[in-house]
Design brief:
The chain is an alpha/beta fold and 287 residues long. The protein contains ten helices and eleven strands. Strand 6 and strand 7 form a beta hairpin. Pfam families: Bac_luciferase.
Length: 287
């Protein structure tokens, strides 16, 4: 099974304005990008991991922005890279995501992770468990969400962290059987097993490097064999920050390593200029 090369653009909703975000989405949609992304943070991503942050920076809510993006665009698929599972009960998140899927007429890509920002959990007294427990919670959350998205009218689930009792979820997602699930992470013992069990797309960031990405992709293949999954069903994705004038130099090694879903992180200082420069290269990048 081969997958087409798809290229997305991500402008994080921090240190920017709603007007700038709208202009970015519209231009990216008109320019032929395959997917568009925001993030899910309650405080600036650069400060979220520390106990005492630097002065606050403006940050907009990712899922509210996705609902707006659904109305501002017509072609590109859209998603949150990635949703923090620790911020919401998965039943509530399933309802939010379903609504965005309908608003976009089935263009949602459902990206989710464990959650990690220390400060943004501390400031609202949200629990932030050790990594192993967070992965266990994410596993249960995905089971809850996919159960609610299934054709079943009532869903019941009793895990260690989440419970459903004859829960209804109507309407079901616009996409059938459900929106694609994106999971990120590099943990070889637990996270990649979770990817093998649940994900349609596996995502990593470019600091791992394409050689390490290829090695981890092989680990994912072995987990797929263990859980009885065809590894070719899972698309490989990387998020990277390229030189806008030389995008091919950044993404070619990843394409050669089998990664076909490319998300380009665009800096907020001149996003439209950078986006235009990258857009001119899209046909060559996909060939």
């Amino acid at each position: 099974m081969s997958h087409p090369i798809r290229i997305g653009a991500k402008l994080v909703p921090q240190g920017t304005s709603i007007a700038a975000l709208r202009a970015f989405w519209r231009l990216a949609d008109e320019s032929g990008f395959d997917h568009l992304w925001v993030y899910d943070h309650l405080a600036g991503a650069g400060n979220a991991a520390i106990a005492t942050p630097e002065p606050a920076i403006d940050v907009f809510d990712g899922w509210t922005l996705l609902a707006t993006m659904a109305s501002e665009t017509r072609h590109a698929r859209l998603g949150c890279m990635v949703t923090a599972n620790s911020f919401r009960h998965p039943g509530i998140l399933a309802k939010i995501a379903t609504t965005v899927d309908h608003l976009s007429h089935g263009r949602l890509e459902f990206g989710i992770g464990t959650g990690w920002g220390e400060y943004e959990h501390t400031m609202f007294a949200l629990p932030l468990e050790p990594p192993r427990e967070r992965i266990e919670k994410l596993d249960e959350a995905l089971r809850v969400i996919t159960a609610l998205w299934s054709p079943e009218v009532y869903s019941t689930f009793h895990g260690n962290h989440y419970h459903l009792t004859a829960a209804v979820h109507s309407p079901k997602p616009f996409q059938q059987p459900r929106p694609p699930i994106w999971l990120g992470g590099t943990g070889e013992k637990r996270m990649l097993k979770l990817v093998a069990e649940h994900a349609d797309v596996w995502n990593i960031v470019d600091k791992a490097g394409p050689q390490e990405g290829a090695r981890l992709s092989g680990v994912l293949d072995r987990w797929c064999a263990d859980v009885g999954r065809d590894p070719h069903q899972i698309r490989r994705s990387v998020q990277l920050k390229p030189d806008p004038k030389r995008v091919a130099a950044s993404i070619t090694p990843w394409l050669e390593s089998g990664f076909t879903e490319i998300i380009l992180f665009i800096a907020p200082d001149q996003p439209l200029t950078d986006l235009e420069q990258i857009a001119e290269q899209l046909p060559a990048l996909r060939s």
